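Blackboard transcription, Thursday session:
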Amino acid sequence: MSDTPNKIPQTEPQQSATFDKVTNSQIRRAAATGIYDIRGGGAKRKLPHFDDLLFLGASMSRYPLEGYREKCGTDVVLGTRFAKKPIHLKTPVTIAGMSFGALSAPAKEALGRGAGAVGTSTTTGDGGMTPEERGQSKILVYQYLPSRYGMNPDDLRKADAIELVVGQGAKPGGGGMLLGQKISARVAKMRCLPEGIDQRSACRHPDWTGPDDLEIKIAEIREITDWEKPIYVKIGATRPYFDVALAVKAGADVIVLDGMQGGTAATQEVFIEHVGIPILAAIRPAVQALQDLGMHRKVQLIVSGGIRNGADVAKALALGADAVAIGTAALIAIGDNDPELEEEYNKLGTTAGAYDDWHEGRDPAGITTQDPELMKRLDPVKAGHRLANYLTVMTMEAQVIARACGKSHLHNLEPEDLVALTIEASAMAKVPLAGTSWIPGVSQF
Amino acid sequence: MESLNYDLAKTPLREVNQFLHGDASGLNGKHIEINNPNGAHNIAVGLKSEAKVTIHGHAGYYAAGMNQIADVTIEGSVGSGVAENMMSGRVHVKGFASNAAGATANGGLLVIDGDAGLRCGISLKGADIVVGGSVGSFSAFMAQAGNMVILGDAGEGLGDSIYEAYLFVRGKVKSLGADCEVKTMGPTERKILVDLLEKSGHADVDPDSFTLYGSARTLYHFNVAKSGAY
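(Written on the board underneath:)
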C-alpha cells in the first residue's frame, strides 16, 4: 500500500440519453436563430422497419425454385380497374415523385434514363412536366398536386398515368416548400411565380375538400383524358385503413402509400420526425382495407418510404403491396451523399451520408440544386446507367428471395413467408415473432 | 354557324365529352348545344378547339374545367370549380357559381353574372375573372397572377398571401388577408379594368368606382419577425 491518500474514484462523464448531442445542438441552433430547422429527406430516427422481418425460405414443407434456372416473374400491371391503357412495368420498383426545381434537370434526366432502361416508371413532382423529362421517360406518371404549379391539360394528356397527391409520408398534412435559392428563372416561369421568392405550396387542393369531392375530381380527370390513363391517389401513411378505403371509394385505380421514411425536398425537421407512421406499420391496414372491399390486386398498392434493396422489395410485396417506389435510394444511386465528395460536404458543415440541406441548392453532387455550375457535375447518361444497375440488382435480389420461398412470381410472396424479430414489428406487420406463433393483437402467446 | 345538339337526358356524358375532344379542325366554328344538364358534373371539360358550347341549364362541379380556346356559356348556375385551371378561351356563367370558381386558372376569361362562393380565384395563375355580383370569403387566396374584377362585395380574407395578381373591387371588402393591401390604380391597371369591363358586358360601369388591391410583398421571403401573419 502506498502512503498517498486514497484517490476518490470518478465516474465516467455521461451524456444524457434524453439530452443527447444532436438534441442539444438543435436547442442551441433554435436559440441562436429563432426559427425552426428545415431540411430534406425523410425520418432519420431509428424506426421499426423491414430489417425487423425475416423470410423463412423453403425447407421440408416448402419447395424452392432453382436459382438461375426456374422462372420468377417480376412484372406488374398498374391501373386495371378503370383505365383503358394500364401501365405494364417489367419490375415492381418505380421511381417516386420528385420535382424539377427540387432536383436539377440533369438529375431528372438521369432518373428517366435509368427507369426507362429497366422498364419502369418515373414520376414528376410539384412544378410540372419538363420536355426533357417527358422525352427521357418511357413511362411517366404526372403528379397532380394542391399547388397546381405548372399544371397543364396538355401534359395530363401526355402522361402515361396521373398521380393525384393528397399527401406524402415525410409531411402528411403539410404543403410544399421551395426556398428562393432554388427559384431560378426557369423554375419561376414554370410555376408562375416571381423569381427568387420563397415558394409555399398549398397543403389542400384548391377545388375539392373531401372524399366525395375527390370522386368528382377523379371523374373530371378521367373525362379530360377520355378514361385512358390510370389514376393513382398518393397518401402519406397516417390512417391507412380508412384512407385507402376512401381512395377506393373515390375511384382510384392505384393507391400510393408513403411512410414517414419517405423523403421530401424540404420541410421542417419537427414535421419529418414527428408526423406520420413508418411504412411497416401502414402496409397491413392498407391491404386489409383492400381485402375487406374485395379490391386487393384489383386496385394496385404501391408502397414507399425507406425501400433500399431487394429484400425490402420482397418484404413489401409479401405483405400485400403490388409495387414499391424509391426516391432517396434513387438519388443515392445517381450520386447523392457520395463519400468521394467528403471534402465539399465538410465545407458545408456536414459529412457524406448526412447532407440534407437540399433546399439551400448547394448540393456538390449537382442533384438537389439549380446552380448551373453545380448541375454540370452530374452526367445524366452515366448517372442513369448507375440507376439502371441499381434497379436491376434490387429486382434480382427480390427474385433470389422469392425463389428461395418457392415462388414463381414476386407477387406470390405472402405474409406466411415472413417472421418478425421484434414484438413491435410482429404487431405492425402481423407476422409471428420468430420461433413462435404469436402475433400481438392477433393470437395468444 | 353549324349547330349540333346533345341531350344529356339521352346521351351519356362520356360520349358528349369525347365528341368535344375530337379533331379540332372538325369542331372549330361549330356551335354545340347541350340540353338537360340537370346539374351533371364535368360537362365540357378539357376542351381544346375553337368550338362554341352552350349548356342550357344548371351544371355541377368543374363545368368547362381546364378549358383551352373554346367559348363555353352556361345558361344557369354552376357547382364548384367552374373553369378550374382554364388555360385560354372564355367561360360565361349566366347564373351563380359555387366555390373555387376559376381556381388555378392560367389564362382566358371567366365571367360570372351572379355571385360566386368561397375561394373564387384561389391560386389564380394568370386568367381574368369578372364577377357581376359578390364573392365569398378567402377569394384570391395565394393568387399568383391575373386579374379579378368584382362588381359587388368581397368576404373575409380577400387576397390572403397574394402574389402578383390584381383585385379590382367595387363594393365593400369585409377583411383583407395577410399581405394584401390597397394599391394605387395607375393608368396600366385602369386600362386592364376598363378592358375587362368591356369584355364582360359591363362597359357602362364607372372604373373609378373600383378599388385596387394587390400584394404588399412582405411575405415573399419567410421572416420570423412576421410569423404572426401566418
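Lecturer's comment: The domain at 38-428 of chain A is CATH 3.20.20.70 (TIM Barrel).
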